[in-house]
Amino acid sequence: MKDTFGRKITYLRLSVTDRCNLRCRYCMPEEGVCLRPHGEILTEEEMVSAVEAAASLGVTKLRITGGEPLVKRNILSICRQCAQVEGIGEVCVTTNGLLLPRMGKELRQAGVKRVNISIDTLDGEKYRQITRVGELAQALEGIQAALELGFEKVKLNVVLIGGFNDDEIPALTELTRKWPVDVRFIELMPMTQGFPPEAFLPCTAVLERLPELESVPGQGGTARLYKLPGALGNVGLISPVSDHFCGSCDRLRLTADGKIKPCLHSEEEFSIKGLDREGMAARFREAILAKPQCHAPLSYAQPSHAGRDMNQIGG
Ligand code: SAM
Ligand code: SF4
Q1: How far away, in angstroms, is 279 Cα from ligand 1 center?
Q2: Hey, is 159 helix, strand or coil?
């Protein structure tokens, strides 16, 4: 289905939980999330019905995210059922990777074709600092597991943070020479967590640092693609702040508590909790028609109007 600006909506990001085994500083508060009454979170059946409803309107690609999707008790069953929904051609997962050595094989068997793994630094101390609690070695083991398990595509997501990991741009892009992975730099989005103004770097900093990057023509979704000479994978630049991609936005988000968000950076939400599949499809239709042309400008001085931390939306 198309929205009122002619954009075809084909992509759903489903956040299955707002809980996480890390506490990344740009994403969620140190104390984690408040325990919600069980009845507020979508059941497994509701999540699958929602995916069916979205598919009936033309959604073909599903990304399962969170919080950390792999800490969700019934994640394998959710993935398996979603992968079988008619019309859904591709189920992908975004994860911090820590549980991939333990669960990657079953995730692959459940029909997940691609994984995006978040890793912002290759320095153990800095990894602990940004995630507050994480061990870098575990994240690296997760990447290794994903590569060995034969996922069709493995992408590494790096949130670019001035004064934190901009000095690691060469080392992080070098991973595309070592492994068949894409490394994607994502501009830090001003959500509810506080960062100083100098933390907000445009992705062009990557091009300035690495003039040898060659532009790769063609489609990279929201990412502009480049490549290091001789590399196995691409370098992607995702610029939601300096160069938003609203004009080609093809996505909807569904939160674990059952709210469709037509736009990541808007407070507007449509609840599907407790509805049957037809009711959900009607709500998805309303949400698509309510998709704004563009969100308000984002900057240090003008934070997102999302009204939630990122772990409650799914990124
Ligand atoms: N836990 C999983 C993970 O970390 O990949 C999935 C959920 S996480 C919210 C999804 C993506 O959002 C991650 O790549 C994370 O780095 C990104 N993200 C979270 N907060 C962000 C922010 N303020 N700005 C830019 N990206 C952010
Ligand atoms: Fe957890 Fe992912 Fe948010 Fe980090 S970015 S706190 S791993 S949900």
Answers
A1: 30
A2: strand
H or E stretch covering 13: strand 11-15
Best residue among 188, 310, 311 to mutate for probing ligand 2, ranked by most atoms within 8 Å of CB: 311
Indicate yes or no: pTM above 0.85. Answer: yes
CA distance 303 to 296: 9
- Going by C-alpha positions, the residue among 97, 133, 87, 92 that lies closest to residue 115 is 92
Which CATH entry fits the domain spanning 11-313: 3.90.226.10, 3.30.390.60, 3.20.20.70, 3.10.20.30?
A: 3.20.20.70
Distance CA 140, CA 146 (A): 10
* Amino acid, single-letter form, for residue 205: A
**Residue 112 to residue 145: CA distance in whole angstroms:** 14
How many angstroms does the Cα of residue 189 sit away from the middle of ligand 1? 10
Structure tokens at 50: 């929602």
| C-alpha–C-alpha distance, residues 273 and 308, integer Å | 18
Q: Rounded to the nearest whole angstrom, what is the distance from the C-alpha of residue 142 to the centroid of ligand 2? A: 15
> Ligand 1, closest atom to CA 315?
12
- The domain locations on the chain are 11-313
**CA dist 274 to 47, 50, 84, 253, 280, Å?**
11, 11, 22, 18, 9
Per-residue pLDDT of the chain (315 residues; tens, 9 = 90+): 999 999 999 999 999 999 999 999 999 999 888 777 778 999 999 999 999 999 999 999 999 999 999 999 999 999 999 999 999 999 999 999 999 999 999 999 999 999 999 999 999 999 999 999 999 999 999 999 999 999 999 999 999 999 999 999 999 999 999 999 999 999 999 987 789 999 999 999 999 999 999 999 987 788 999 999 999 999 999 999 998 889 999 999 999 999 999 999 999 999 999 999 999 999 999 999 999 999 888 888 888 888 888 998 988
